[in-house]
Amino acid sequence: MSKIKVISIFGTRPEAIKMAPLVKKLKENKNFQAKVCVTAQHREMLDQVLSLFNIEPDFDLNIMKNKQSLTTITSSVLHGLSEIFSAERPDIILVHGDTTTTFAASLAAFYEKIAIGHVEAGLRTYDKYFPFPEEVNRKLTGAIADMHFAPTVKSKNNLLREGVKEKNIFITGNTVIDAMKYTVDSNYVFKNDQLNKLDYKHKKIIMVTAHRRENWGKGIENICTALRRIVEENNDVELVYLVHLNPIVKNVVYRNLNNINRVHLLPPLDTKETHNLMNKCFMVMTDSGGLQEEAPHLGKPVLVLRNVTERPEAVEAGTVKLVGTDIKNIVDETCRIINNKDEYEKMSRAINPYGDGRASERIVDYMLDYFHSLVKNH
Length: 378
Prior knowledge:
It contains 16 helices and 13 strands. It starts with a strand and ends with a helix. It is of the alpha/beta class. The protein has helices at 13-28, 44-52, 70-88, 100-111, 134-144, 153-161, 175-183, 193-196, 218-233, 247-257, 271-280, 291-297, 312-317, 327-339, 341-349, 359-377, and strands at residues 4-10, 32-38, 59-60, 92-96, 115-119, 147-150, 169-171, 204-209, 237-242, 263-266, 283-286, 302-304, 320-322. Strands 3-2-1-4-5-6-7 form a seven-stranded parallel beta sheet, with helices on both faces. Strands 10-9-8-11-12-13 form a six-stranded parallel beta sheet, with helices on both faces. Keywords: Isomerase. It holds the Pfam family Epimerase_2. One of its GO terms (molecular function) is UDP-N-acetylglucosamine 2-epimerase activity. Belongs to the UDP-N-acetylglucosamine 2-epimerase family.
């Protein structure tokens, strides 16, 4: 069989982190002619990950614009990939998760009748506006994908209910656990000196991220109010809030939390800094998806600042807890973990449902089997 031509496509930092170990496995395997295309839906944060994992894209659409909309992202990706697909004619493209890049790349591949492999397939909240636009992006991608790499049994069952054939679904675990083998170091020294000065042994350092679209406005305001109260009520707590660069988020956070004692507002860190902060901190508060998978791998309890999650396995396993954006609920649930050792231990010792760090290896093997069976049947 001739080499399988595969193009891995991603555009944001979270996608890049989760695709990087898979890109590396494909490059190592002599059965694949593996290329990488980035859309640069997010430019600066994406480039940090490419540098960390030593990935040089073969194609870079560089679409990011000031005040870009979902419409401009979608149309730019469609136009850019149409030309690449026409010239390259890959056997399959790989996309990840739920970004606008993922959906638009899948649609572009469908128009060219190119097979689509969906990494981290089958996550659902069943509410099309939570998270927005991610829930619809992943459902639309799932509707046209050919290979569905589901991280868990629950994700597989979601796809089966939607009519995806079982032979096209492959349970792999989550590739983000693979990525952490490259990034976490118990002796790590931070590039950001503020982080080196924190007293991780005697203080309860809480890592915070909150930036999702559905929390813009009142949600972020409530989160900031809750964070201020948590610090005021707990003298042994310090917060490290990694503040998204989007002014819609950044302006609200700085207005509410700048110059508050024991609150450290930092710009987003690169992946290695983030993973090692997570490894050293006491717990995590976030509205991110990926952190719900990453932090439990390191034994850190996670409070999810959202009303719904597409990662219910983590809730059921007890590694994360949904707290929404109600001020009182956030404060109460955080203080419970801070002040109740049994509650903390129960969450920190719960088994992470997202796998053993071999997801990328499994995906490569499944792809080989898939294409071997196609050749055999022809």
